[in-house]
Amino acid sequence: MDYDLGAEAGSLRDRLRDLIRDNVPESYLGAFSDNPEDLEIAQRFCKVLAAEHLLTLAWPEEFGGAGASVWDQTVVREEMWAHYEPRGAQYMGLNWVGPAIMRHGTPEQKAKYLPPIAAGEVIWCQGFSEPDAGSDLASLRTRAVPDGDGWRLNGQKVWTSYALMADHCVVAARTGAPDSRHAGITLFLVPMDRAGLTAVPIPSQLGPHHLNELFLDDVRVEPGEAILPVNGGWKVMRDALAYERVGIARYARCDRLLTETRAALGADFDSAPPALLARYARAAVHARTARLLSYKTIAAQAAGEIVDSDAAAARVAVTRCDQEVGGVLMELIGSDAFDGRDQAGAPLHGGIEDHYRYSQAATVAAGTLEMQLTLVARAALEAR
Amino acid sequence: MNLGLPDEAQELIRAADRAIAAAGGVELTRAAELDPTVRTAVAAPVVAALGLGDLDVGADPDIAVAGAEVCRVAGSHAFPYPLAAMFAGRHATAGGNLALVGGGRPRVDHGDLGAWSAVDGSGKRYRAVPVDAPLGSKLGPFVVDVALEPQPGRSAAVDVALALDLVSFTVLGYVERARALTVEHVTTRVQFGQTLSRFQSVRFQIADVSVLERGLRELARFTIARVLTVGDREAMADALALRVAALEAATEVFRIAHQLHGAIGFCDEHDLSILSRHVQPLLRLPLALEGTTQLLVDSIALAPFDSLFSAAAGA
Question: Does residue A291 belong to the interface with chain B, where contact is any CB pair within 8 Å?
Fold first, then answer.
């Protein structure tokens, strides 16, 4: 047995940390921010990564990537998430929209959409969820009706992260009969400045840009903007959701915050109540366990044997750990827990407060905890 | 990255599972409760026939994995023999069994079988001499009061870590069997016209069990794979972390298993009752969850827990 991520992984991790240290301020807490400086930081960092051929490390060589091993990709995901995703909103395009277009797009779509993603120049958002289609995504009702050689979209999307800053949206719409569920959905690549498309922010405790509504009012879609075949969107969506299950290395931020909080608190950490230190120790164990469950899934993926229940079990462990770490660290910093990044002297520049707020949604976003538990239970019961 | 078990380990796992099952499996433990000599008359020959007494788990990482996996198999049958202590003793003392002792009255599970050494968390060595017969109690049928006679020298931290890891693997085996019994029960027991497994609340509890078991297995394998190659401090912190995870998982898995079995699970004619009673010494000796966690806290106070970021913090 061998848990070494490979010869390149260690040097890649060092290189990424150097680039982050040199280009991303310690106070950067991600693109969910109204501060234009944060967006600039992310845009600039993407260009740095692109220049270093690290932005599309995971992409196949034929599309300008480096064809990196899954373990090198894992290192990138860990380091990016641990440092509050300094690629900003671009990660969605890089991580799943780009690869989906590679697999399912036409030559024209590949030529049009992939180069700007690879250059870190565009932001994509994902229009899947609807007011009446959350966990039960296959019940979505946004309609795409043929209109000459294209379509017209009407409906409403919700919880659309980055909608106000995005250049494009992948909109899932019903092209089959109203009751066609999985078999009647098509994905459309829609420019956000298209007439009839309106994004409205939803103020939330998660911070700006996390949650938006998207209204589609007779939005014209051109024939080259559909991912074909028509009614074949569900498979692409499943790939995207499977990616989100294992793609977000939440355990890595947990590891970083556990370590850095202890260092930042110094003697105050040592004098914390024993029961709280016990919770801290167990959270560290759970973060390691969550990482190992994720590695098991990634190893299976590398061998072409990805099992839904493996990914779901990893996600259960990872998201619960995310919340556990948030709770422990907030208690460790006591009354400083109210200080976000805008308050001077906030612990870890507000990173703990930000993590706590964001972690509350970890068991809801990208497939609820209950959906993951359902997958794990099904596998356990069927294995009998 | 290679998460597959070594071939030798897989062969040994299959052989041990067959041999213990053929000797009666959990039924053997039931018999040993009525007649403790069953442990020497039936269980010990199974161990000898498998050649386990010659396995030096400290000699090589692959052998450590193999030995640990055999402990897991033994746990899945509640095998009434101190296999983990035997492996640890074979390596650390070149013979006899090795017990870990903590605070409180010194007690050793199966402490009446063979010669015993003991070591405490600081590495102090003792000879452990039984002062009485096994308790014969519900939760500690083979637990024996011992007298500790100090011995010269100290045990290496890695030896203590290895001993802890082997016990945690045994606990993993108990957890696996408890999960399997529970799945069997909820998929066959009919209430309100449908199997228990049709109820969502039951399914979510099964999922929780599965996630705990999967997590413990991955952490256990990670820990044993590197116990002989990391330094003493890391090996000990790893072992404490694994024991914390094992105790947490076992406590919750057995709670859920009993809840879902209902009254039948408490009856000694059901394997779950045997398993949940016989796992108790493994969960409480030398220290239970809070005591183990405190040792981990003490370890973290000296140096950060090894993680993706601990090296950077220590630099």
Answer: yes
Question: Hey, which residues 143-172 in chain B have their CB within 8 Å of chain A?
Answer: none
Listed in sequence order, the DSSP H helices in chain B are 7-22, 26-34, 38, 44-49, 61-76, 83-92, 157-188, 200-226, 232-261, 271-278, 280-284, 289-302, 310-314
pLDDT over threshold 90, residue B41? yes
Q: What is the CATH class of A7-122? A: mainly alpha
The two beta strands, A168-174 and A124-127, are parallel
User: What are the structural domain ranges in chain A?
Assistant: 7-122, 125-236, 249-382
Is residue B288 domain-resident? Answer: yes
Amino acid at B188: T
Which residue reads 């945690």 in tokens?
B168
C-alpha closest to that of A264 among A148, A154, A347: A347
Q: DSSP code of A272?
A: S
Asked if A1 and B204 come within 8 Å (Cβ–Cβ), the reply is no
A331-374 tens-digit pLDDT: 999 999 999 999 999 999 999 999 999 999 999 987 899 999 99
Interchain contact A342–B (C-beta under 8 A): no
Q: Which of A258, A281, A374 sits opposite B296 (nearest CB)?
A: A281
Question: CATH: 2.40.110.10, 3.30.300.30, 1.25.40.10, 3.10.180.10. Which one for A125-236?
Answer: 2.40.110.10
Bigger pLDDT: B94 or B16?
Answer: B16
pLDDT tens, residue by residue, A138-188: 999 999 999 999 999 999 999 999 999 999 999 999 999 999 999 999 999
Sorted by sequence, the CB contacts under 8 Å of residue A214 that are 6+ apart come out as A127, A156, A157, A158, A160, A163, A169, A171, A197, A198, A199, A200
ipTM for this model: 0.96
Backbone angles phi, psi at A153, to 5 degrees: -105, 135
Exposure string over A4-42, b if 16+ CB within 10 A, otherwise e: ebbeebeebbeebeebbeeebeebbbbbbbeeeebbebb
- HSE-CB at B137 with a 13 A cutoff on CA atoms is 9
Residue labelled with tokens 């017969």: B133
Torsion of CA A158, A162, A164, A165, to 10 degrees: -160
Q: Which residues pair with B154 in a beta bridge?
A: B124
A377/B203 touch (CB, cutoff 8 Å), yes or no: yes
A-B Cβ pairs (cutoff 8 Å, strict): 154
**Which pair of tokens denotes residue B107?**
């007690």
Q: How many domains does chain B contain in total? A: 1
Predicted local confidence at residue B275, as pLDDT: 98
